[in-house]
Specification:
Length: about 200
């Protein structure tokens, strides 16, 4: 079993992997915070991540409105997914002014479990924050470029490869979604907060 990384090593790992990076603009000329989920190492603590964002990312936004691109491609819970509860903890620690400046969150290549979980529990876990209303699922890269400047956003090769495989083998009926279908209106029995928190630990 590998030893737990020292705090300085965890911080350096975040810098090297560039999991979080301000890169490019959306079509409204707002900066984009790109997050590559597959690069997230499980041996980096949430506290270290919070401090990294405070020191390296938030100052670069300069108080401007911005969009978030979360790339969920090839994320595996056991290897590089901290859990939705951990992500919510990170989000709750974001200063209010920065949260207010989030204009849109583009969730690229959402897994079925993640999508169903957010449809069921998203409003509860992120109640009062307005985060859920800003979430937009994007199934393919060509649909992402409708919203973001393609020439300014770098994507790892595995993202392109996954997209090509999806285009080859999966039906495209989910590609053309309007605003309403992006947030399913199916009525479920209202889940409890404890249920959502428990489910969040095992959803990838």
């Amino acid at each position: 079993m590998s030893a737990v990384l020292e705090l300085s090593d965890q911080q350096q790992l975040l810098r090297i992997l560039q999991i979080f990076k301000i890169q490019g603009q959306d079509k409204h000329r707002r900066p984009v915070l790109r997050i590559i989920g597959k690069f997230f190492p499980v041996d980096v603590s949430i506290d270290v991540l919070k401090k990294y964002l405070e020191a390296e990312i938030y100052p670069s936004l300069n108080g401007r409105p911005f969009s978030i691109l979360y790339v969920h491609t090839a994320v595996k819970r056991a290897e590089n997914f901290p859990g939705v509860s951990a992500l919510k903890s990170i989000y709750d620690a974001v200063p209010a002014k920065i949260r207010e400046n989030i204009e849109a969150i583009y969730f690229l290549h959402p897994g079925l479990q993640s999508r169903l979980f957010l449809a069921t529990c998203g409003r509860i876990l992120f109640s009062g924050s307005g985060l859920y209303a800003k979430l937009k699922y994007v199934n393919r890269l060509d649909l992402l470029w409708v919203h973001l400047m393609r020439d300014e956003i770098e994507m790892p090769e595995f993202v392109w490869e996954f997209d090509e495989e999806t285009d080859r083998y999966c039906p495209t009926t989910m590609d053309f979604e309007d605003e309403e279908s992006n947030h399913p209106s199916t009525v479920y029995a209202s889940p409890s907060l404890d249920y959502c928190r428990a489910s969040a630990r095992c959803i990838a």
